[in-house]
Design a protein that fits this description.
By secondary structure, this protein is of the alpha+beta class. The protein has helices spanning about 10, 20-25, 30-40, 55-65, 75-85, 90-100, 110-120, 125, 130-145, 150-155, 160-170, 175-185, 195-220, 230-235, 245-275, 275-285, 290-300, 330-335, 370-385; strands at about 40-45, 50-55, 70, 150, 305-310, 315, 320, 325-330, 390-395, 415-419.
Length: about 425
């Protein structure tokens, strides 16, 4: 029996979704299998109304592509919270920032804003960044090479996406450290529910992001370059395409959503390879399989586990009625391990003939940065495996992030030899 199969102790317990449980963080897959098997459209009724947890691949894909489900109403819920707490809490900048993020926009605003980014994030343009990304990865690995030990998160997975997003947007790379911290902090907004104190802190983070980018935008207006920021400023100056608030919000969005997702992707992938030395060896001998390998690693331990939608009208799925207004949690992590879609889904096989999987969501909100994330993963993982040998885990216990949307470890110490 592998660790991902249902253990007898699990099977005996009542079926309960508790994403805050440390045991769940360590390995959510046995629980997902139980949900998919026993209650694939699982209704959770509480003070927030009726909510659903969907774990089957086909159901998750269906909801993502059906216009009777709209994006999550997080900005609205924040607004209600701020009205309720109006004498205590002030998070207007936070609300203003996230309400302009693509995640929370519906057409036509979604189409207008997404269109401004599409070119810069297209597979073709991102492919052109390969030499720059390779240079960043080479430098990061050179920094740790002599030591023979490194923390994959701190030394590679964290600085890489920040430096790449900074390069694309046109932010000076020496200022990345302060932005990484802000990006990490702001992403917590997805992690509900949070205390008033946390919201106030997040509001401060949103203010700092705003201040930082206001200064940079003022500089870039005087001296445009060939970067994404200059392109967006140009769009802003063509009045109806983008306003100042949207521009500031989008800059914060790109850093926040591209950071921890990619970090976890690289961390989870290296961890999966450490747990499967035969697969690591296969990649070392056949570096060409990296494109396929990255798809498999994204499926096997998806960095984004949970996303949400709201039903705009009553919808029947599998003889159950999801009512207008119900919130639906789509479990991408479970969908990507569904045996109805993937044979032997708990098995990591870097040469698996890839079926369509859902690590980047689907429908109109499909991840804007998917091509960029894939290429960063391909270069980081392949360079690590080719350049170092005898890569081994260098700690006894891993600490999983206490996050319900994302899945990843806080640190991943490894030891290695130089080839
Ligand atoms: C492996 C890394 C990544 C993963 C697993 C990931 C995953 C996702 C998922 C699941 C969604 C859909 C959310 C929903 O439908 O509710 C999404 C959307 C999005 N992602 Fe990513 N992402 C990654 C990297 C990036 C990067 C590097 C960027 C940009 C720098 C980025 C920017 C975005 C944006 C802007 C959206 C919203 C798109 C829209 O609503 O139209 N992501 N991502």
């Amino acid at each position: 029996m592998t660790s991902n199969q249902i253990q007898p102790s699990h099977a005996a317990q009542p079926l309960k979704f508790n994403p805050f449980d440390p045991e769940f963080h360590t390995n959510p897959y046995p629980i997902y299998h139980r949900f998919r098997h026993e209650s694939p459209l699982h209704k959770i009724s509480n003070f927030m109304g009726d909510q659903w947890l969907l774990t089957r691949f086909a159901d998750v894909k269906f909801v993502l592509n059906d216009s009777r489900f709209c994006i999550d109403d997080l900005p609205k819920r924040l607004e209600q919270k701020s009205v309720y707490l109006k004498n205590n809490g002030e998070f207007s900048t936070l609300m203003q920032t996230i309400s302009q993020w693509l995640f929370f926009l519906n057409p036509p605003d979604h189409i207008r804003l997404r269109g401004l980014f599409s070119n810069f994030f297209s597979a073709r343009v991102v492919e052109g960044m390969r030499p720059q990304i390779q240079k960043i990865v080479d430098e990061l690995l050179s920094n740790v090479q002599q030591a023979g030990v490194m923390d994959i998160i701190h030394d590679l997975a964290c600085p890489l996406p920040a430096t790449v997003t900074a390069t694309l947007l046109g932010v000076p790379t020496q200022e990345c450290d302060q932005i990484i911290q802000l990006a990490h902090d702001l992403f917590r907004v997805f992690d509900q529910p949070l205390s008033l104190q946390v919201y106030e802190n997040l509001n401060q983070v949103a203010l700092k992001f705003r201040e930082y980018f206001s200064t940079l935008i003022a500089e870039r207006e005087k001296k445009p370059k060939q970067d994404l920021l200059s392109h967006l400023i140009k769009a802003k100056n063509q009045s109806d395409k983008l306003n100042e608030d949207e521009l500031l919000a989008c800059c914060a969005m790109l850093f926040s959503v591209g950071q921890e997702t990619t970090e976890n992707f690289i961390g989870n992938s290296v961890l999966a390879l450490l747990h499967h030395p035969d697969q690591m060896q296969k990649l070392k001998l056949e570096p060409k399989i990296i494109t396929n390998a990255v798809e498999e690693l994204l499926r096997y331990d998806s960095p984004v586990q949970l996303i949400a939608r709201i039903a705009v009208e009553d919808v029947e799925i599998d003889r159950k009625t999801i009512q207008a207004g119900d919130r639906i949690h789509l479990c991408l992590g479970a969908a990507n391990r569904d045996p109805a879609q993937f044979s032997d889904p708990d098995h990591l096989d870097l040469t698996r003939q890839q079926q369509h999987s859902l690590p980047f969501g689907g429908g109109i909100h499909y991840c804007l940065g998917a091509a960029l994330a894939r290429i960063q993963g391909q270069i980081a993982i392949n360079t690590l495996v080719q350049r170092f040998s005898e890569l081994k885990l260098n700690c006894h216990r891993l600490e999983w992030r206490n996050n319900i949307v994302l899945r990843g470890v806080n640190y991943l110490p490894v030891a290695f030899k130089i080839n």
